[in-house]
Amino acid sequence: MNGEVIILTGARGVGKSTACLKTVTLARGRGYTCGGLITLRRFGDAREVLDLYSGTFRPLTALPGVAGEVVVQGRFRLLPGTLDWGNALFNDPPPRHLLVVDELGPLELEQQAGWWRGVEALQRGDFALGVAVVRPELVAQVSALLPKSATVLIATPTNRDGLPRRLMAALEAAMKRHSGGAA
Predict the structure, then answer these.
(1) Helix (H, G, I), strand (E, B) or coil at 168
(2) Which pLDDT belongs to residue 183?
(3) Which of 74, 164, 173, 180 has a Cα at 20 to 30 A from 46?
(4) Directed axis angle between helix 116-124 and helix 80-91, to 10°?
(5) Alpha-carbon span 58 to 105, nearest angstrom
(6) Spans of the chain, pLDDT less than 70
(7) Is 157 exposed, middle or buried (0-12, 13-18, 19+ CB in 10 A)?
(8) What is the side-by-side strand order in the sheet with 4-10?
(9) Domain positions in the chain
(10) Contact 183, 170 (CB under 8 A)
(11) Hey, CA dihedral for 90, 95, 99, 100, is it positive or negative?
(12) Distance (Å, rounded) from C-alpha 173 to C-alpha 2?
């Protein structure tokens, strides 16, 4: 399909993941298929991952004080089983119009770990619109890995409520371009 890519960036906590979730809801309401992963903040530093295709949730971070194998990234203790599960979703993706990879960070860029298969899925372009959630300080590095046509969209407190509509408009425009004018 040779999909289009948007890099969604902005300060931590500004609402990038929320904008992605709302976009997925809008897209599904219009009959589009969605895939990929969204990382959701839970209490404290706890993180959970949502598979957008199946609706399955998995814990991403280990609870404090719980022993077991983890991947340490900054202050986070990530569960290797969840990372493997998430990457498997990108390896053999279901058909989809919208792909979300939330979030690409140091683990992917420095170690080709984390959601690295999400980077590869964005490079393959087998979707109409791909959205990569990226920290502002890593946008240049992620941009270098993605198609040159990737555009950057910055989430701010003043524009975040309108981001789902903007992303939805981008999806519909991409669908029209890829289908020769019919959405």
Answers:
(1) helix
(2) 47
(3) 164
(4) 10
(5) 19
(6) 1, 93, 180-183
(7) exposed
(8) 57-59, 47-51, 34-41, 98-104, 129-134, 4-10, 151-155
(9) 4-178
(10) no
(11) negative
(12) 14
Report d(CA 141, CA 149) in Å as an integer: 15
Is 122 in contact with 132 (CB distance < 8 Å)? yes
175 with 169: CB under 8 angstroms? no
Name the one residue in this structure whose structure tokens are 């981008």: 170
| Helix, strand, or coil (residue 14) | coil
Distance in angstroms (rounded) separating the CA atoms of residues 110 and 73: 11
Query: CA–CA distance from 36 to each of 65, 80, 81, 151 (Å)?
Result: 30, 18, 17, 19
Backbone φ and ψ of 15, nearest 5°:
120, 25
Domain 4-178 in CATH 3.40.50.300? The answer is yes
CA pair distance 18, 60, nearest whole angstrom = 17
Nearest to 8 by CA among 134, 94, 176, 123: 134
Residue 73 pLDDT: 80
Distance CA 102, CA 39 (A): 6
User: Backbone phi, then psi, for 3, in 5-degree steps?
Assistant: -65, 165
